[in-house]
Amino acid sequence: MLNYLTLIFLCQLLGEIGVGLLGLPIPGPVLGMVLLFLFLMVRGRVPEPLGEVAGGLQGAMSLLFVPAGAGVILHVELLGAALAPLGAALVVSTLLTIAVTGLLMQWLGRNDETEASDD
């Protein structure tokens, strides 16, 4: 299990290094996650110990929101001053996400129906 935890952290480190060297506008952990995904695609499956390690990390994920919550409390005046634009952005982005998800599910459902009728 330690090997797979090391693999996860190594992918994150490589992502951070890649973003730093290439000047990419994405967070290093996101690039690291893409690298891990590509590794798993080449391998063809997710090893069970890796799934267990990832599940353990997911179980502790709520702890990662504590610093963000403290930052929100620290800057509550600043957020209050920008409440209208932030609220509008949240509402618009949420509605857009729901619409795109619904349209994508309809499109994917049609493809499943055509494949089922071809059989």
From TrEMBL:
It is a multi-pass membrane protein. It is found in: Cell membrane. The keyword Glycosyltransferase does not apply. Keywords: Cell membrane, Membrane, Transmembrane, Transmembrane helix. One of its GO terms (cellular component) is plasma membrane. It comes from the Bacteria. The chain crosses the membrane at residues 25-42, 54-76, 82-104. It holds the Pfam family LrgA. PANTHER family: HOLIN-LIKE PROTEIN CIDA, HOLIN-LIKE PROTEIN CIDA-RELATED. This is Holin-like protein. It comes from Tropicimonas sediminicola.
